[in-house]
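User: Structure please.
Assistant: Input sequence and predicted structure:
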Amino acid sequence: MFVKIQLKTIMKKLSFLFSLFILLSAFTCENEPLDSEIDTSNSGNLNCEAAAQEVATAALAFVSVTDDNYTQLCSAYKTALENLLAACGDPDGSIQSSIDALGDCSDPNGFDDCEALANATNLAEVNFNNATDDNYADYCNAYKLALENQIAECGDNDGSLQAIVDDLGECVVNVENPDQELSLFAGTAPIDFEDISVAVENGMVKVTGVDTSPGSVYSIYFEVPVDATGEGLINDTFELTLTSVFYPSELGPPFDFVSNITVNEAGNLVGSFGGVVTNADGGDLSITSGVINITY
């Protein structure tokens, strides 16, 4: 009786992990309805999508595991994951980590719940980072759920997991202005400030942008006079916060920071910027391809 109760408790916690994998496998396209039976006989010839379908089927069966069929269903699920790894690769190691967490499938009480939940979080993060506007809310909410389950089960000593949950907010895409853009390249790294706010105060259009990627602290700020267009208008107020705050450099040509506002009318601001910026310690950084295309 003790074993059955303990197994039931474990599977209750695991049901989240496997449901998440079914819903959010980074390798699935348009999954067809799942069959109730697990067939891995053709596993050696599976393509990536078929392997993902096999994992979803095996995971669904494993959610309803009992102490009598644990080894069988665990082994089938583990084999499906191994086939997925072979067919699709495993760039972040999350599939192999899930395989390792299952152990040898001989002892249900040997499953590492915290490791499994961490793997689920990693997988959800991969999907979230590859989200589009169409699936952003689903992937964002799943990522939040994975984080919250990991926190509830395993704790969060340094608060880093909760910080990501807080940064994700309400998982809402800016549906009012889906085409707006505020972005740049810092060296070779692209940065997109997805969260854009605009205030018009004292004759100035004040723009703030925040990179909402998990763990990011990047932000940008500048001001431009209402209705004004031309070169250099944002230079005096431009601030770029990365690991520190950067301002337009005063090195002189050819390292000048340049900007050009081409459209500035009620509710619409368009322009470009780029050049060298520097921080208080004298560190220089080259910015290229700065884009301003904001509707507010």
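The CA atoms of residues 18 and 59 lie 6 Å apart.
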